[in-house]
Amino acid sequence: MTKPLHVAFVWHMHQPYYKDDLTNTYLLPWVRLRSAKDYFKMPALLDAYPKVRATFNLVPSLLAQIEDYGKEDSVDLFLNISKRDAAELSSEERAFVIRWMRESPRALRVQQSPRYLELASRTADAQFTTRTCGTCRSGSTSRGAIRHGPSPIRGSRS
Asked: Which end of the chain is more exposed for a tag (fewer CB within 10 A), N or C?
């Protein structure tokens, strides 16, 4: 007779403390981005499997930042710049976007979209122009919006 195998699923979720408490500013967006998908989605997936048990360990620095994002007084550099119309960005802010908010052309999600791959493959000094994109401005990142929606950025050909 074989004995049952007992397995423990333990998810340890952690993030460093990214907030500069002196300026009340988040210097990196990872807690916000992961909260929008992983930190909720992973436990929610278990609803479909009521017999599966799992432990989710969230460290105190992560919990403090998640709670803080629910308050109106927190500042997130990446979020604040991405909410603004690209035409209104200063040259320093544009440089910030190109340097810090651009994915590698090797990333799978970039490879899946020809237009995204084209933009990600451009050099940092490439000239960009903008046009309004309600889908992208609203913060939607659904596959359909990215793959089939209007392009938020059109680059000039050099």
From this structure: N
- The amino acid that residue 109 corresponds to is R
In the predicted structure, residue 72 carries a pLDDT above the cut 70: yes
- Answer yes or no: is pLDDT of 122 > 60: yes
Rg over CA atoms, the chain: 20
Structure tokens at 58: 């969230």
Classify burial at 62, counting beta carbons within 10 Å of its beta carbon; exposed 0-12, middle 13-18, buried 19 or more.
buried
Considering the entire predicted model, what is its pTM?
Answer: 0.62
131, pLDDT greater than 90: no
The tokens for 128 are 């960009």
Which ranges in 15-113 belong to alpha helices (H)?
Answer: 30-35, 38-45, 60-69, 77-83, 91-100, 108-111
Phi/psi for 26 (5° steps) reads -85, 125
Angle at 36 between CA 31 and CA 38, to 5 degrees: 80
Continuous segment of H or E residues that includes residue 11 = strand 9-13
- How far from the centroid of its chain's Cα atoms is residue 61's Cα? 19
- φ, ψ of residue 130 to 5 degrees: the values are -125, 160
Joined tokens for residue 49: 């499997």
